[in-house]
Amino acid sequence: MEKFPQFELENQDGERITNEDFGDRTVIYFYPKDNTPGCTTQACDLRDNMARLNELGVKVYGVSGDSKRKHQNFIEKNSLNFDLLVDEGFKLSEALGVYRKKKAFGKEFMGIVRTTFIVDKEGNIMKRWDDVNAKSHMDELKAYMEGVQ
């Protein structure tokens, strides 16, 4: 089973989060940018389903290249109930292969491709979704989590 890389990132409050903070099952999802339509949809779906995820023993972290201040704003604006981690240098995103060339409006640029991982307490990647659809992903995630209880 593939291992999630060792990391240390700050959350929106400047607290250091590492692999040691993972629970029995942790959803760690990578998204392009705070306060954009798809990212807001995905974050709010997670927020709205947090009670069910907590019942299943799941911790959730979001990761993007945005600053602590932008994360704080995003959390406050959308009443998010989970931590957002700052990967400003894209080290973790690069290590996982989710920071790569993208294309939009005829332009190529580097950025985070929406990706979700489920990681167990030992750091094993249980499941990986690439090129996640923000609108339908919550249903896939819940179905998977309920299936591996």
Automatic annotation (TrEMBL):
Enzyme Commission number(s) of this protein: 1.11.1.24
PROSITE patterns in alphabetical order: THIOREDOXIN_2
Top-level class of the enzyme under EC nomenclature: oxidoreductase
CDD domains for this protein: PRX_BCP
Catalytic activity: a hydroperoxide + [thioredoxin]-dithiol = an alcohol + [thioredoxin]-disulfide + H2O
KW Disulfide bond (keyword) present: yes
Entries under InterPro entries matching the protein: AhpC/TSA, Peroxiredoxin_AhpC-typ, Peroxiredoxin_BCP/PrxQ, Thioredoxin-like_sf, Thioredoxin_domain
Family that this chain belongs to: Belongs to the peroxiredoxin family. BCP/PrxQ subfamily.
Described function: Thiol-specific peroxidase that catalyzes the reduction of hydrogen peroxide and organic hydroperoxides to water and alcohols, respectively. Plays a role in cell protection against oxidative stress by detoxifying peroxides and as sensor of hydrogen peroxide-mediated signaling events.
Subunit structure comment from the entry: Monomer.
Identification of the protein by name: thioredoxin-dependent peroxiredoxin
